[in-house]
Each structure stands twice: as structure tokens, then as C-alpha cells.
Amino acid sequence: MFLTVFLDLVGFGIVIPLLPLYAARFGAGPVAVAWLLAVYSLMQFFFAPWWGRVSDRVGRRPVLLLGLFGSAASYLAFGLAGSLPVLFVARAANGLAGANVGVAQAYVADVTGPEDRAKGMGMIGAAFGLGFVVGPAIGGVLSRYGMAAPFLAAAGVTLANALLAVVRLPESLPPARRQAQSRGFGLADRLRLLFGGATSGRLRALYAAGFLATLAFAAMEGTFSLWADARWHVSAHSVAYLFAYLGVVSVIAQGALVGRMVKRAGERRTALLGMALIAAGLAAAALATSMALLLAGVGVLALGQGMASPSVSSLISHQGGAGEQGRLLGVYQSLSALGRVAGPVIGGVALQHVGLSAPFLAASGIAAAAAVVLALLAGGAA
Description:
Oligomer: single chain
Low-confidence stretches: none
Distance between the termini: 25 Å
Radius of gyration: 20 Å
């Protein structure tokens, strides 16, 4: 599963830094590029719970395989596109196919015991982070051979990953543990799950805390390049290195630290510490007076993100049985996708209308609010 997710994110990472430049060749302006980036997360918002619920019914493996083959086809359409509408269709298809992150997490929940759940989620998070570090580097090298080359390479990597998964990836949810009937997974059903009386306050609090933490990180992520250019006058290459640094620290946190922290302090305390570090790191980066302090703040931020995300996923997975993991984690990924859509908008408005450091300080407050929600409303020792 680690290898499957890693290769999937390598393909994803290959194209992300080049997507705005590629779209500009077809006449896309800044607004069109923003929507081209956002449509991926919007598709994840709508379809992540659907994929999760389907996986509860038919098993994880077929849903993961369908997503991989669909992603390969969408990358191929990117590389062969001849117009901006085709790019939008391909990007939407990529978001639809890639909306199965919750299914990958449900797979981990299927094959790990409660005591190892957070560690397993951390390994999947590390695969995401590592793929996103390696992918852009490959894309940068391949761009020398034409703007379409990285997209075609992403299609090839993802197709190879799909074929490898066909041979090597077993099913994690046996028929006896599957849900026989499919319950709702539309927007109205998600709202009932979030606000209905049948849902525990603890689960709602976990969803809210996870959403706020994602919103905070996305507000920083969406404005970081503009902020770094205006505040520190760094080059595009330096911004890429800062993102890579953030990714490496997050990978280390998720792959090596989360499991140990959870064994010592429990999942909830680990998530709380992670959210507190996100808030502190964002504030430190905003107020930094030297590059060394900036790197320290970004490092603390990445460490917190690497600790909080898998811990919250693990806590949510404990709120249901084996046949509900896809639905519960799919809703969480849907909310995370919504946070990744709204976060850059909040950050952009704060940057344009409030001040240069406003996106980071606002995001720090949002992360602190996530920690408060988790501390006060998601009770329990886990």
C-alpha cells in the first residue's frame, strides 16, 4: 500500500508545479488557472465519500485499481490536450479518480490493529509526502523535453503503478466484513452525518478539528510563493526548495515519529500537539526576521502537520466498524478537500486586503481553533 500510494503521488507531483505554465500555453489567465487547480479538490469534495462507501460494499482493491487506471487516463489526456476545455475535463477526471484517499486510509484501517493504526496512517502520509517531493523533481527534469513530456511520464508511472497493484495488492476487506447495502453518500447525507443526532459529538468534533487544520495549512500553502517573493525576494527555485524542505520534514514526522508519539501519549494528545505546532510554526514564519528563523518556523509547521494529520485519521477510523471505514474516512477526505479549496481563498483575501503576513497569522489562529475544538469537544483518552 505504501508503494502504491507513493507511486500515485509521484505521478501527481510530476505535473503540479508545471500545470499553471502548461495551461498558460492554451490562453489561461490567472483566474482560469486558479479554477483549474481548484476543480481537482472540488471533485474530491463531492466524490471522496462516494468512493469510500463503494469500497465498504465491494472491497478496497477494485476501487483503488479503478482510481489508478482513471488517473493514468487523465494524465494522458493532459499530455495530448489541444485546448483549455480539454484540460478542464482532464483535471476534473483526475480529481474524480484521485478522490479515493479515504479508501487508501480505510485499507490501512483494515490491516492494522488499534494500537498500530496511527503508525499505519503515518506511513501512508509519509508515502504522500515522499511522492510529492520526488515527483516535482522528476517533472522539472522532464520539462526540458517539452511541456507535454511530464504529463505523459505521469501517465506512464501511474499506469505502471496500476499494473503493479493488479499483481501485488491484495484485498483488505473480506466479503464477510462488507456492508451488504449501500447507505447514502450524497451531500445531504454528509450533512446528516455531520449534524444529525445519530452521530456522536466526538466524531463531529474530530471532523471539525481536521477540517480546520487542513484549512489553516492550505491558507499558508496557497499564498506561500507570493509571500516568500514579496517578503524575502527569493527565486522560484528557492521557493521550490522551501516546499521540498517542508515535505521532507513532514515525511520524517509521519514515517518515523507518529508511531512512537502515539505509543507514549496516545492519538488525541499527539494530534493536539501537532495542531499546536502548526499554529506556532505559522506564527513563527510570519514574524521571522531572518532566513534561519523562517526555516525553523517552517520546520515546526511541517512537524506539526506530519503529527496531526495521521493521528486525526486514526481517531476517526476508531469511530466505526470494519464496514464503515470507507464512509467515515471518505467524509473526512471530502472535508479536507473543501478546506483545500477554501484555504487559498482565505489566504489570498488576507494577503491582498489585510497585509503581507496576514495569511500566516490568520492560519495560525485557525490551527489554534482546531486544537481547542479537539481538546474541548473530542473527549476521551485515545
